[in-house]
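Worked example 3. Consider a protein that binds phosphoenolpyruvate.
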Amino acid sequence: MEILTKTKKRVYTFGDKNADGSSEMKNLLGGKGANLAEMSRLGIPVPPGFTITTEVCTEYNGQGRDMVIGLLEEEVAASIRKIEKNMGTQFGDNENPLLLSVRSGARVSMPGMMDTVLNLGLNDDSVIGLAKKTNNERFAWDSYRRFIQMYGSVVLGMKPATKEDEDPFEEIIDHLKEKRRIEHDTQFTVQDLQDLVYDFKDSVKKKTGRNFPNNPWEQLWGAVMAVFDSWNGNRAIYYRKINGIPSDWGTAVNVQAMVFGNMGDNSATGVCFTRDAATGSNEFNGEYLVNAQGEDVVAGVRTPQQITKLGSIRWAELAQTDEDERRKNYPSLEEIMPKIYTELFNYQEVLEKHYRDMQDMEFTIQDGKLWILQTRNGKRTGAAMVKIAVDLLREGLLSEKEALLKIEPNKLDELLHPVFDPKALKRAHVIAQGLPASPGAATGQIVFFADEAKKFKNSILVRIETSPEDLEGMNLAKGILTARGGMTSHAAVVARGMGKCCISGAGALKINYKKRTMTVDGKVYHEGDWISLNGSTGNVLEGKVATMEPELTGEFAEIMALSDKFRTMEVRANADNPKDAKIAKSFGATGIGLARTEHMFFEVDRIKAMREMILASTVKGRKAALEDLLPMQRKDFEEIFEVMNGLPVTIRLLDPPLHEFVPHQLATQKELAEDLHISLGAVKSKVAELEEFNPMLGHRGCRLGNTYPEITEMQTRAILEAALSLKQKGIAAKPEIMVPLVGTVSEFVEQEKVIRETAQLVFEEYDDKVDFSIGTMIEVPRAALIAGEIANRAEFFSFGTNDLTQMTFGYSRDDAGKFLPIYLEKGILAADPFEILDQEGVGQLVEMGTKRGRASNSDLKVGICGEHGGEPSSVEFCYQTGINYVSCSPFRVPIARIAAAQAAVK
Ligand code: PEP
Ligand code: MG
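Given these inputs, the predicted complex is written out as structure tokens:
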């Protein structure tokens, strides 16, 4: 065992423009401690204090309380003396007491997972001294009762054991409020607060058998040890587990002088931002309240005032207050405390320059003196994120690579879809919560059936779940809401592809197709009622909520151009039609990585021929129906090739099980029987025949092409004829024909043979040729295992990570919604593997497949076209694996471009 000695430095002080530590020392001092030290070094007035290192937390866990107190005693006492000197107060003094805050602070922020104690040092004597000194009895007693409540819960174990149990202190407060017939804490008199102190202490004695500690030193050691203990609390352990934080990191403890913004009219507290967090414009802004505590600003009991005069004037305009009125009732900090405002303004400049990012700062003014309590990189909207990164680059604060790394790729989503007007959103009422399946904002009238989406100009398609039959309706609707299904459910995948707002899996919705109603929490919504969907948060909102169109020029274009400068991996798009191909190209896709041909068959005029083909009982009948489909497919491909103008287009042969194409509703079955001049019974029996127990593992993918080669023949012909026809027009086409769901070499070889034979026929007929390649999806685990053999024949691989995930985990894509949410909640899975590529498991197959494939075919081009192709961490993984391109839905192309550039820069 390590011998613990006193000579090691365990306590680092900060304050008075000095510090033992710095921002480099996050591992030892924790994030908060390192930052406080850094601010102090920069000459920023932070309340003085000290940090007990994270190493002591580990020592405490090994050696226990007494040993650790022995090791810390001298250093802590010396540090307290420093604070006293700095603040002109004394710890444990009755007339002029120094009060302290004690907070946790791990290497990485673990918000709300560990404990905090404020106002430490108060007792029955010093509370009277504090009241006298501040001439504010109410303030002193309110601080004291808050301290007992916090200390009692955190240190003395007064916290309720389960969430059903009542908090003993809250019980006392409620009881007093009832007795006094008041509603808010602010209505307590001094006498009330004194009564609370008495009752709180009484409750502590009864519950713990001990008196509440009066001695400030005993209080301090109790609080420090409680913070160490909270590192091993259930909340913290759980948080560490899901975020992969090692338990031996430990937490630091930060002890700091308390400063108060509620000591009278010369005191205030507030929050400020160095730039506008909503728009990104370089404008200092923020809010404050005179004579208030930090939480008053956020709690919204009093309306906070603007820091800057300009902000105040704008605010007055919004509130339609006249300027004299505004100046009188809502003056800015700039107006009422100009000197302090200037000081604050200077600090924000220093901090932003130093951290080279927009800062979100908290400050307190105690009796005319400004203190900065905290600074951190501020949260911001997607638009602000882009503007700030580009501005900081222009201002020379960031290099190109650094500016690029400031972009959170996923946040770009907000910029690519219509967005809600933030003001309207604030007022909106949330009626249900689902999965944010496809981002954006949609507002419209409820319809329950896809073929009725045209009923209203703006409709929201509300379904229990969607199926391929709903495709056209989904396209027409402004947004899609489903009660069932996860992030890769049909609705989610299709909606993302369309760039259409979608919320899936909103389990609270009870949908009744017969009555055409949707019920949530007892409230009934009918067809035609207005609702709005926030696809970025999963919130379902009541009524109409105003939206705005996004703008993709200016800084957005600049950051995208910058990403291309550093990116080495290609980014393609999954697109099934010319419209999507156009969007993909405008977003910078360098090709199409997956065109799912089945989507082309769902349009009204085609589904009939398709059904005819499926219902045909002979090869001849099938071929006749395919003849009808051929010109339509050819036209599709011609249009896509034309849009892509020489860029590669990967076309996948028919993949889904055939039963998805036949009608399941009686009315449509009747219609089909009439169209085909066959009996309803014949239609019904064919539908029943196609029914499978597990269609996802059934008659689909290349199993279709291998059992019905005429489908492959027709599709190959359509692809090559389209390319030839464009060639005649002088437009280059670069088709790549892709065989889906291959698991054995023969499956591929058989299809390859059909394709090559068809190609030869077509080329002979046209007396002309085009270049094309034949490759395969790798989406069955067996294909990844025998990738070396497959690559002897295939010219390219595209990892279909949706199916590969499904089959590696054995989780049905269609049914995972039933257990995945619970797995995520319980931490059995850290992330949805259909959304974020499981690098540990599925990733191994991708790596192995790529390696083995390239070993036998060094020219093998490798891509990925599952949903993961647009997910930043998965894109980074693909880059590291040496994959040539990722392919994702058009609206995710910019995200993947940034993620790929970041991977290269990192
Ligand atoms: C896949 O399986 O990852 C894939 C792209 O194909 P689909 O989602 O159409 O099955
Ligand atoms: Mg697939």
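Take a moment to read the result before moving on. Residues 11-257 form a domain with the Dna Ligase; domain 1 fold (CATH 3.30.1490.20). The chain has a mean pLDDT of 92.
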